[in-house]
Design goal:
The complex is a heterodimer of chains A (239) and B (124). Chain A is mostly helical and 239 residues long. Helices cover 83% and strands 0% of the residues of chain A. Classes of the chains: A mainly alpha (239), B mainly alpha (124).
Chain lengths: 239, 124
């Protein structure tokens, strides 16, 4: 019996099916808890899913690369999903057009703050050069951030992780931060989430309000552009 | 559903081609988003099937970040070594960015709304 189970395990661990299925199961669990807690930002589904999956992989001694064989199908959908953001953006475009100046000014400050605060804080606390360079594009959506990290000499795969952590931070604590600075306008709340926490912040913004979600999508796209231009220039100036 | 999904992939592919061909260091999917946006502007509306497909994808946008997030396991030793600078940069940096961006945006909006526009407010 034990031998049979072992055989099944050996078979499953070589197919993409397992990685894909556990990813969905972990997320479904995370989302179930999120909904149970009435979408409380502290019960973030990405955070729960990542914690569950990392524990499972470490406990079963499975490598990340063999897990990713299956999980890559989910990861791949990031591309089409980014394209899909055009739809809410189009639907809310009348709001965006009316506040174009505010969007551009806030975005310029936000983009600069995201890069300088991350690099500045880590530098003050003695991070290594490689970590600093990997942190610089941390607020931009994954594929763009990885490209920037590669260009300036950071570690793209470390950047991907830092990007996700920044996204989770914004999704979990962003609501409280926004309440603390007493910003009530949905457009400003959404924009800030998108600038600092890209797609994960945008996902959170959409659960709360569609206007916030549309501004967050816009901010995420524009910040990708701004940061791709800004970071190489800043790093050349600073180093 | 299948037409809409195809449309999304075609936009992404066109975006990738434009990015490579022009040498702009910019991601294909974001260019794809711009292409679809321009298309919707020209058409002047969102077709119902596209609306449904994009809604079902975007309802669970966060799921798509899970596989990359699990990559944290590879970097656990490095993060443990430099946990203080990394955690501070990520948490404080992100929250300062949110606070400052939202504050600047709301100040400018308040001024421009005073001269005509109107805002929908967050109600606690």
């Amino acid at each position: 019996m034990k031998g049979e189970l072992h055989e099944i395990w050996v078979y499953l661990s070589t197919t993409p099916l397992l990685g894909l299925t556990v990813t969905l199961c972990a997320y479904v669990l995370g989302y179930y808890l999120y909904r149970k807690c009435r979408f409380n930002p502290l019960v973030n589904p990405v955070l729960i899913a990542v914690l569950v999956l990392v524990s499972l992989l470490l406990a079963s001694d499975t490598s990340y690369s063999s897990y990713f064989e299956g999980a890559q199908f989910v990861h791949f959908m990031l591309g089409p999903a980014t394209v899909a953001l055009a739809v809410p953006l189009y639907r809310q475009f009348h709001h965006v057009r009316r506040s174009a100046t505010a969007v551009l000014v806030a975005l310029a400050f936000g983009s600069l703050t995201a890069v300088l605060s991350a690099v500045g804080i880590a530098w003050l606390l003695g991070a290594s050069r490689e970590t600093l360079l990997s942190l610089a594009p941390k607020s931009v959506t994954t594929p763009v951030a990885m490209g920037i990290a590669e260009q300036i000499g950071g570690l793209p795969s470390l950047t991907a992780v830092l990007v996700i952590l920044s996204g989770i931070t914004g999704a979990v604590l962003g609501t409280y931060t926004l309440n603390l600075v007493r910003v009530k306008d949905w457009r400003a709340r959404g924009l800030a989430m998108g600038v600092a926490s890209h797609g994960i912040g945008t996902a959170r913004a959409f659960t709360v309000n569609e206007i916030a979600g549309a501004f967050s999508s816009l901010a995420m796209g524009l910040n990708a552009l701004a940061t791709a231009v800004l970071v190489p220039v800043l790093m050349a100036l600073l180093t | 559903m299948i037409e809409s999904l195809t449309l999304l992939l075609v936009c992404q592919l066109a975006g990738e081609v434009i990015a490579r061909a022009s040498g702009i260091p910019f991601p294909g999917p974001v260019i794809g988003m711009a292409i679809l946006f321009v298309g919707l502007m020209i058409r002047g509306g969102v077709p119902e099937p596209l609306q449904q497909t994009t809604k079902s994808i975007l309802d669970h946008l966060s799921l798509l970040f899970v596989p990359a997030g699990v990559g944290v396991m590879i970097y656990l030793p490095l993060i443990a070594d430099e946990w203080l600078p990394i955690a501070s940069a990520v948490v404080i940096g992100t929250l300062v960015t949110i606070a400052l961006t939202a504050w600047i945006m709301s100040v400018i909006l308040r001024r421009s709304d005073a001269s005509g526009g109107q805002a929908e407010k967050f109600k606690k």
